[in-house]
Each structure stands twice: as structure tokens, then as C-alpha cells.
Design a protein that fits this description.
It is found in: Cytoplasm. With about 250 residues, the chain is an alpha/beta fold. Helices cover about 30% and strands about 25% of the residues.
């Protein structure tokens, strides 16, 4: 472990809920011999900037499985409307945590270096409320028009200006070197900001786009967006789980 600056304690949390309209029980779906959530946890165990790592779940089966493979796990309410609310409940029981990295429990190929970079960014900038990441897309990529792919535009200083499910930006004119940025669903928070965030009601733009991060922007938050080449896919369906299994199998042969 690389010691964090004095007074800073960074905790990685993997929210994992049982219910999913497209994929019930997803965290325990077995991929290459291990539950999905175990793959993510093992990747995060390679991080050097996390002082603590735990799974936050709403289901006894996930709790038991996580503890079975050696993870620290906590139970949270099944009634949370969002993963961020689940995160905040878990953080309430972690008095030492000053910063939190919310790592999606369905990204079994997440790059540990990206998690570390987010943690280091938050630890190094007292002005930041949040940090996240995005990878470039060719403006001609079909994903640009896919509403399931969230796009972000950033300021010249690297702060988020807006997130959208629509193509963003709209290229009325071609601009050399200006890529479309696909937002990755990983977030780092300052604890005090996270505690405020979950007290705010869903904001108008958040409700329009179904994107929580817009609530932060609408309330004046500063969100640093880190560029990354990490294009690791998430798992939203059984078909995507099969794709990940093929990727993992090919990597071990």
C-alpha cells in the first residue's frame, strides 16, 4: 500500500444489489468459475491507493458470498433508490473514511490504475467535490447515438460541464482532435460532499436524463473528469456476462 497523505483515508466501495430488471442476482452470476462481484473485488485488491475496500449489499446471499471469498461486506437497506444512497449508508458506518471511490460491482475488468488515479486526484485537490473518468470515442462511432452510452463534455481545465444520453457535443462544425467522451460509471467523492449530495432532491435535469451526476452539477459541484483508455465493458445482461467469460478465458490461454 502507498500511504495516503496524513488525515486522508480512502475507501473503495462496491455497491451490489440483488434486484435487477434485466439480470436478477447479477453479482453472484458465475463467470470463469467465480461470482461477478468477486472478479471486481480481486481487481480492486490490486489498487495501491485504497486504504479500505468493502462490498455494500442489500441481500444476505451476496453478503455471505462476499465474506466467503474474503471480502469485507456490509448490509444496507433494500429500499435505496440509487447506488449513491446505498454508498452513503455504508459510509455512515465508516468514521475514518474521508474520501470514497464508488466502483461499479459489474465491471470485472476495471483497471486498478484508474481507481488509484481517481483516489490520488481526490486526495491531491481539496477544491474537488467529485472525480470520474471518460474515454474517447470517434464521433462516427454508433455508440455516440446510443442513449445507453452516457457522454460528457468538459471544460479546458478538465471539469465536467454536462452529461447526456444524447450525442454530445453536436458537431455543427468538424473540430480536429475533439473526441466524444464516453462517461465511465466510476466516481470518487469527498465524504462531506457525498453526505450533502444524498440530502438533495432529484434535480430537474437528473429527472429528465435519469443521470444522478446532473444533480451534482445543478447544485454547483466541481467534478474532475480523468481521461482514460480503459474501455473495460460492464455486465448488464447474461449475454454480456458470456462475452466477459470469453475475454477472461482467452486471457488465461
Amino acid at each position: 500500500m502507498t500511504p495516503n497523505p496524513s488525515g486522508i483515508h480512502i475507501t473503495g466501495i462496491l455497491p451490489a444489489r440483488w434486484g435487477s430488471s434485466r439480470f436478477p442476482g447479477k453479482p453472484l452470476h458465475v463467470i470463469a468459475g467465480k461470482p461477478l462481484i468477486q472478479h471486481v473485488w480481486e481487481r480492486c485488491r490490486q489498487c495501491s491507493r485504497l486504504d479500505d475496500l468493502l462490498v455494500a449489499t442489500d441481500d444476505d446471499r451476496i453478503l455471505a458470498a462476499a465474506e466467503g471469498f474474503g471480502a469485507r461486506a456490509v448490509m444496507t437497506s433494500p429500499d435505496h433508490p440509487t447506488g449513491t444512497d446505498r454508498l452513503a449508508e455504508a459510509v455512515a458506518g465508516l468514521p475514518d473514511a474521508t474520501h470514497i471511490v464508488n466502483i461499479q460491482g459489474d465491471e470485472p475488468l476495471i483497471d486498478p490504475a484508474l481507481v488509484d488515479e481517481l483516489a490520488a486526484t481526490m486526495a491531491g485537490d481539496p477544491e474537488l467535490d467529485m472525480a470520474t473518468a471518460a474515454n474517447p470515442l470517434d464521433p462516427a462511432d454508433p455508440a455516440v447515438a446510443d442513449p445507453n452510452v452516457v457522454k460528457v463534455v468538459i471544460s479546458l481545465s478538465g471539469r465536467a460541464l454536462y452529461f447526456s444520453r444524447s450525442p454530445l457535443p453536436y458537431f455543427r462544425n468538424p473540430v480536429d482532435g475533439l473526441a466524444v467522451l464516453r462517461h465511465k460509471g466510476i466516481y470518487a467523492y469527498r465524504r462531506s460532499f457525498l453526505e450533502r449530495f444524498v440530502t438533495w432532491p432529484p434535480s430537474p435535469l437528473e429527472r429528465a436524463e435519469s443521470l444522478e451526476q446532473l444533480r451534482a452539477l445543478e447544485n454547483g459541484a466541481s467534478i474532475k473528469v480523468l481521461p482514460t483508455d480503459d474501455t473495460s465493458p460492464g455486465v448488464d445482461t447474461p449475454e454480456q456476462a458470456d462475452h466477459i467469460e470469453r475475454l477472461l478465458s482467452s486471457a488465461t490461454h
